[in-house]
Amino acid sequence: MSTAAIMQPFAEPTPMKRILAAALFGLAIGGLCATGAFYAGILEFAPITLAWILLNRTVMGVAIGMSGLRLHWAWNGVVIGLVVGSVFSFYLFMNVPQPLPAINAIVNGLYGLIIEFFTTVVCKLPSLGAPRSLRAA
């Protein structure tokens, strides 16, 4: 049996690869978001705030990875980013003075777009809602 025959099941992107890649990119974006927020003095450092930011961005990545919406990859990232990120905006609305929650609500779409870009374009793991011809390419 050749090596190509053994590796053949791993050659095609699977849903789990996409979900894992998107979750890792979400965690990385969460780290960048938290670093920027704490360093700029926008948020005061607290372990629970750090955990909340990392969890929110990681869940955003998982939702993007699992998304089966039949949208262009860019719109998929923006829509899922806005929907999932709205939870973090509500948290900020309850705990932080204005206008940060409104700014965060808009920036969540950008974070979703970045996660989707690295998952779909850079890692070449197409959306689960993409037509089969795009998934096979």
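Second entry:
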Amino acid sequence: MKRTTIAQKEELEMKIKELTDKFHIKLNNSKAKEILSSNLINLLTKLRNQTTIKNTQELLGFFELLEKLQIETLISKAQDIFYEMFCLDFEEFFEEISKKHPKDTRKLFLNLIEIGKKLNITMDFYKNKIDILTGKI
């Protein structure tokens, strides 16, 4: 099976959006919302199980797709997963991740901050903590 590049995916996304707009096609948003919400939960679960830059970037790319397609998802369960992973015991989570990824800690946590924002979670407190913990004040 041939892998699709990011550029090809983006081009396809734009074509889909252009065609649906051009021909006034209404996508089945309820089914799309259900599928995309499930995908969001799966991506967050994957991130929770394996917190890596690659997985944060994949999730941020998914949010970009949602914005381009202008389809909202149900985010309450995703918010719960993120909160339990990131916010519930932030200091312990930070320590664990910084030991596993010492060179990428700041980048990884900045990506996590962006994911939290996309989930409508106020992240200012955590951004300030990350700045202090990584010495980037």
